[in-house]
Amino acid sequence: MKPTRWLRALLAAMLAIGATVAVGGLAPASAHTWTGRTWTVQVGSESSNHLIQGMNYGPSDIWIDVGDTVHWKAASMEPHTVSFIDAAHPLGDFFPGTPSFGYMSTRTWQHTISKPGQFRNSGIMATMPIDLLPAPNYTSYSLKFTGVGTYTYYCYVHGAMMKGTVHVRAAGTPYPHSQRWYNARATLERALVLLDGRLLRLKERLLATNHHVFVGAADDTALVMAFTRPHVTVHVGQTVTFDWGRNGFPVPHTVTFGPDPANPLAPVGDPQHYSHGTLSSGVLIAPTSTFKVTFTKAGTYHYRCLIHDGMGMVGSVTVVR
């Protein structure tokens, strides 16, 4: 069984147990005595060093009553959205310049939602600004649910693989779980997502060499925001291949040497004869993309991903004679 499939099976089993058995005193809540309650859901997850980013809502499912509010909180540097989509605002490529980017990155003005199928969008949510994405950058988003139904939402940045559901029942219906129970479930989901990311990085380390550096890694659960191997040594005249090939999910990255380019989206410089100055791959997102750099002068050359350097996605190439 593949590691990701194994993790999903483990998660399903543990959550099934948690739904029927009190875990450390976190038993499901009994009937409530008031309406208009606010529930909290985490948006995204990350490791303490920010190198592993999770594509998940914590928890992914929540059961509330009519009149209740869900408050989503950004929990990662990686940008996400909370998006209740409709036919006019479907999932698609989340990238500046695409026709759909405008509605995907913009917060809608409504504070309530009354039935499934209504379009509502949080706009870009993250714990830090993203240079290549437009402001404002939100850290929270709230919606009050005024109608019964099953409300499914997605992240426009990461598509159908990052999905959450709000199950809304009639006012006065007993709550099946407490906020404390949801927090425990979110903690479990986060742990499994981060484990998946660490397994992805371990696989990269087994394949990377001084001449072959992997640019991040991703599957349908986790993102590795790091170069593997980030610090390499080669000889003058040799080439380093920067490889996006471990990204099963098309994540945008750059490999950029020297000062910031005027246009961070576009390639700059001559990668076949590099000795100084700005050199950049531009933003590449295809899983099969590579950027090959041949070094013609001894020295140490520092590089970074212009999108994710704030998460520690940096490296260096030392060139010797």
UniProtKB/TrEMBL annotation:
InterPro entries: BlueCu_1, Cupredoxin, ET_Amicyanin
Recorded GO MF terms: copper ion binding; electron transfer activity
Signal peptide: 1-22
Name listed for the protein in its UniProt record: Plastocyanin
Residues covered by the Blue (type 1) copper domain: 53-168, 222-319
Entry keyword annotation includes Thylakoid: no
Any Pfam family hit: Copper-bind
Lineage: Bacteria, Bacillati, Actinomycetota, Actinomycetes, Micrococcales
Domain of life according to the entry: Bacteria
Keywords (A to Z) from UniProt: Copper, Metal-binding, Signal
